[in-house]
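Hi P.,

Sorry for the delay on this. The queue was packed all week, but I finally got your sequence through. Input first:
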Amino acid sequence: MTLFINGQWIKTDRTETIINPATKEAVGDVYTGGKDEASEAINAANDAFKTWKAMTGNERGTILINIADELLNVKNDIATMITKEMGKPIKDARGEVASAAAYLKWNGEEAKRIYGDVIPALDSKKQLMVLRQPIGVIGAITPWNFPVSMILRKLGPALAAGCTAVLKPAPSTPQCAIEVFKCFERGGLPSGVANLVIGDAEAIGTEMTDNPIVKKLTFTGSTNVGKQLMRQASENVQKISMELGGHAPFIVFDDANLDDAVNSVVGTKFKNSGQTCISTNRIYVQNGIKDEFSKRLAEAVEALNVGDGLDENTDMGPLVNEAALHKVDDQVQKALSAGASTVTGASVMENKDGFFYTPTVLADVTDGMNIAKEETFGPVAPIFTFDSEEEVVERANNTQYGLMGYCFTNDLSRSMRMMHQLEYGMVGINDPAPIVPHAPFGGMKESGIGREGGTSGVHEFMEEKFVSIKTSANLI
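Then the structure:
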């Protein structure tokens, strides 16, 4: 398994072994690179930019749609690689590949509709316009939790806009990226338009931020790493998009449909073993329904089938690695020591070979505990209680994060108030799965800068150029 630079598969003198988190067995070896390979890829992207940007949006879009079809043709193979590299259940992995193709197809269609603006002039001899043009070469750094869809959520709009790209995938899931680039090759993407550099995160990331050819960096990952990249990018006044950490509140009012709320918590908390940026982190349940809610949630969680994601019957797979497993258990044990109580779970699954943690529900959790402040990224559902709407809004917003918020209520007026008052880039009202390709995805506060998805996602990769043309005579 190799790097992909300027349309060629490249081997280096360094390799890394990828481990299956469900079995701790080797999945395969990949060649890795660093600064030199990143520089070579950036130069290739710069050369390709000259011709790629000159193509019509329709021509670029047709290629992107062809690539999406190639992804779907090998959906099962790519899904199997996702599961082997990072552990999610195979049925969810198939859904991820379908989602990735949907993002690529939408952006392929949107490439035809990158419009400018005509501005009314104050002078009858002037014509005022705004052009949107591709920003240039972009660097993209993607995470392991959605190792295929995150690539195409970034490269889809970038390529549609007319940019060229260098991608550094997560070290845990490089073979997923390789499979995507094979689809790029089969789908007819010209050489150098998209390049893949696997390897040293610091060396590759630094080259992306230091090299003046790279005009924009798009990153999904932790807030701490995002801040470091922002500091580096500032040296060249490089544009950035950052999708960073989250600490999503899930608010359940006493008029909510409890079955819907419980099922939605299971979906938003235990899908991907809780390893998503929009996973529920704090469940706020109104006091009058806390006992019934806790009981129903525990029953639903205990029914989850935990195991190797390659088993079609698996509902929840392992955590990605041993460090993630220890982090989750540490948060749980600290919460229990501080007064939380176990409703179900709360232990490492010692009877399994991989990095498995029992699906967990905690009660009596308070705002002062670490689990109320730090992103868990694991299958732990802590239940907080509240009395009033005003109280829960203040507590839900009391975090440096602002990515995703959920609220369940059957009161329409309250729904509207919560929509406006929750300080999050995305809000799901009675909806646990609001994310779609044609809507903007992104956060407020320390959860990020910029948006992915929708027209906003394409515009992130474009410069606006204002043009004023003055003529010798009145235009009208």
